[in-house]
Amino acid sequence: MGVIETDKWLENYFNQPWEMGMMAKPEVDDAEDFYEYLTKFGMYRPSRNAFYILNQLKEENVWEKINKIYLKYRKKWKGPAVDIYIFPINQQVSLFRRRNNGRSGLAFHNKLFLFISEGLSEKELEALFVHEYHHCARLSKIRKKESEYTLLDSILFEGFAELAVLNCCGTEYLAPWTKLYSKERLKNDLKRMYEPNFNLKRSNREHEDLLFGRRGVPSLLGYAVGYELAKGYVKRNKITIHDTFTTPSEKVLSNNEFLES
What we know:
- Helix content is about 55%, strand content about 5%.
- The protein has 13 helices and four strands.
């Protein structure tokens, strides 16, 4: 557990990234399908630019820095043991390059993938890690089958995770999507677009549209709605970060400052 030596993997498999995806032992059988799934979240595609980023990440000791951050938060949060896989980010995936300042990730209950550009400060790396590791911590506490997760669950995973970034790293390290939309706009969209669809399961394509912003839904609107919902609930109820690992999604809809203000 901890940071896996993907820097060494990349020396041998840089041009076959799907091989490294399977080396992470995902619960799937098709290497290329899993790799394509990772690319949606920022995993690099082999290119001269990606190779340049890789070399820069090595020079910047990113693997060591992330491991130090992991040990800090595992102790601080009494968090789960996870495997951490670091890869260069795909600069062409504009959704994550533009909205997340050159960093992105994907979390499972026992592993997380971090996709990183060169030149990030240690605090920026910490903000990325905090967001993704919060997902792991919440996944480890809220035990649902993947097929049972709803749109409400998904937006609150993002909201609580970014609220952890606010508390641990500060306002300046929040993802840009937290500031894309006004509160008035988010409240209107919550009532009009999200409340009627809170029970949509992950298998429903509209769930993805409303979460990420597709097919007429503004970019990362679901993330922003989730952030305001999480923030409103925490502020009204004065709960701790540890409480956000276990708070049921449905409970967030009651006694919430965002909904009542």
